[in-house]
Amino acid sequence: MKRRLEDCRADDACVIPLSSLDVSETKRFQNDSIWSCFERLRREDPVHYCRESPYGPYWSLTKYRDIVAVDTNHKAFSSEQGVTIVDVPVEHWTQSFIKMGPPQHAEQRNTVSPIVGPENLTKLESLIRSRVRAILDGLPRNDAFNWVEMVSIELTTQMLATLFDFPFEDRRLLTYWSDVAVGTPKAGHEIDSWDKRNAILSECLDYFTRLWNERINTEPRLDLISLMAHSPATRHMKPSEFLGNLILLIVGGNDTTRNSITGGLLFMSQYPSELRKLTQNPKLVSSAVSEIIRYQTPIAHMRRTAATDSIVGGKQIRKGDKVVMWYISGNRDEEIIENANSFVIDRKNVRQHLSFGFGIHRCLGRHLAELQLRVLWEEILGAGLEVKVVGEPERIASNFVHGYSALPVRIAA
Ligand code: HEM
């Protein structure tokens, strides 16, 4: 539903002077009040400079076209200084191919891309389907449970374990490392310093180094570790680069799909007419999946750093400036997407969204993510499962991963 300026509460983004509006505040993502901030920026200042924030000064891009222009111009807007609004201290910096430009980026990306190539996806479909069935069959009936924990995390973590050929019984370590990697250390939290974060991620590196050492001495296989161990582009990576690429692949494959699985269920419950459309016409499932991914926008932003002076949306960006592309806002840009604030599973041009980014870093795993979501919804519909949301979702306090820690649901027997 479209909100008007006068609908905004007195304490929210509509009344703060534009010059002090900082859309990176994580509490707005946690309490789901971020939308009015972005609506205002799109309307009043689509390329907005925030002078002071916990992350230093940064530009916010909030309109679809400006985001695409920057995302597709990797020469002028580089990912080499990081892809999130946080500046990681130099001593904790890890390299990975999302932070590289040509030609090294393409060499490393091409090394791992067969894992999500069409041939492998065809093979994975039946595995995903049998896992989805097992997970759905094992869910409680008539008792409330947390969908995030029992379905979203379980399904994506099982998939990730398969991609890495990671010991299945230890697969929840992948979820843990992913959560640690995306969190910024905060006083009073489990991860309260960069050193603590580093210590946990070193355990991740040690574990994967053992797997690497086993695989480098065996015939190449189709798993992410073996692909990297046997490719000239990645065989000689330093440990910190190996860790960086592991984090990229773990986070890429984990948080994003997980939060789309949860978001999908939540949206179908908020928009029962859309669920009815899907139940009556299951052929809409692929279109519904794209709409879920747009509406959720599991990665709220990607950051670039200006490599040269340039003009974006009429504003002068200087070399070295931090530029944040808010996909979550561009996906609600009414100039491009009609009725963008509503969840409409059969909308025109449903695949036209920013959730996977654009340009040379466009998401590598997008077809796998769509496949997992499609199979999940086919199986929910096929089994006639009525999953009711029975409480408010708990959202993550992050301006990067846009997602949930809990969604209480109940399935009628
Ligand atoms: C890159 C989103 C699923 C692996 C990205 C980017 C976004 C994104 C926004 C950066 C694009 C840019 O900078 O232009 C998503 C969403 C997903 C998803 C919304 C699910 C709904 C996955 C999965 C995997 C994966 C399942 C792994 C199997 C990657 C990798 C990159 C990437 C490796 C870096 C690509 C590069 O630098 O060339 N993803 N992703 N993603 N994603 Fe995904």
From TrEMBL:
Keyword ATP-binding: no
Keywords from the UniProt entry: Heme, Iron, Metal-binding, Monooxygenase, Oxidoreductase
Requisite cofactors: heme
Entries under Pfam families matching the protein: p450
Domain of life, source organism: Bacteria
Cross-referenced InterPro entries: Cyt_P450 (IPR001128), Cyt_P450_B (IPR002397), Cyt_P450_CS (IPR017972), Cyt_P450_sf (IPR036396)
Sequence similarity: Belongs to the cytochrome P450 family.
Protein name per the record: Cytochrome P450
